[in-house]
Amino acid sequence: MRRTPRRRAAARERSRARAIAGCAVLGAIVTGAASLIGGLPMTPPGGDQTRGGVAALSPSNADVAEEGPSSLAITSDSGPIHPVRVEGKVDYGDGGAKFGASRYGHTHEGQDVFAKSGTPLIAVRDGVVVDKGNDGGRGNYVGIHSPSEDQTYLYLHMLRPTGLKRGDEVAAGAQVGTMGCTGSCYGTHLHFEVRRGDDIEAKPIDPLPLLKQWPQAP
């Protein structure tokens, strides 16, 4: 039976539709394969990459928050390090050695640490020497300010005057003196203070919680 022009046109339309559908299927297969191999998005060209109406962020454009170190964070280069180099357990004395204890008409503004005379005293953090000297109460002392923490660390009653000068930069872990009993002192110990800011007369804070967290120098 011969096909009429109308039937031939209909056949051509059906063939064209099958060809278009076949190309679409092939295109989807190729796109899917490329996505699995090369990480290409499955969304159509010009479409939005969204999940539930919220734009999906890729690692290249997502905001990644970096967590900075806290005051108790331990870093090998900049500290903190315990100010007294001893082997074994650190001796913090009894209640009278603690911050806030009553001391002959004034309040104790530091924490005492006990060891034998000549024990090395260590810079807690990278810092700058803001004061040093020898007076009747502090004895031989040095104050080192840490810009990163905005705290000043005071070492009192040292055996000898420190060799450091005001303005000297000090690396964490460097020796700043040795333990002694100069000034107003009864028994060899380090009187260690932590003060806010870069002034040795600024408000003090209790050093003991920090001291118990800081690792000892090797």
Tell the overall outline. globular
What would you say the CATH architecture of the largest domain is?
Distorted Sandwich
- Domain tally: 2
Strand content: 15-25%
- Helix fraction, binned, reads 10-25%
In CATH terms, the superfamily of the largest domain is Glucose Permease (Domain IIA)
Order of helices and strands: HEEEEEEEEEEEEEH
Mean pLDDT: 77
Q: The biggest beta sheet, please? A: 7 strands, antiparallel
- Number of strand segments: 13
Just give the CATH class of the largest domain.
Mainly Beta
Task: Work out the helix count.
Answer: 2
CATH topology heading of the largest domain: Glucose Permease (Domain IIA)
C-alpha end-to-end distance: 102 Å
- Rg is 36 Å
Helix and strand content put the structural class at alpha+beta
Uncertain segments are 23-76
Structure notes:
18% of the residues lie in helices and 25% in strands. The chain is of the alpha+beta class and 218 residues long. The protein has 2 domains: 5-44, no CATH class; 95-213, Distorted Sandwich (Glucose Permease (Domain IIA)), CATH 2.70.70.10. A hairpin with a 3-residue loop joins strand 7 and strand 8. The longest helix has 34 residues, at 5-38. The model is unreliable at 23-76 (pLDDT under 50).
Describe the SSE topology.
Layout: H1 5-38, E1 50-51, E2 54-55, E3 102-103, E4 106-107, E5 111-113, E6 120-122, E7 127-135, E8 139-146, E9 151-158, E10 169-170, E11 175-178, E12 190-196, E13 204-205, H2 208-213
Antiparallel strand pairs: 1-2, 3-4, 5-12, 6-11, 7-8, 7-10, 8-9, 9-12, 12-13
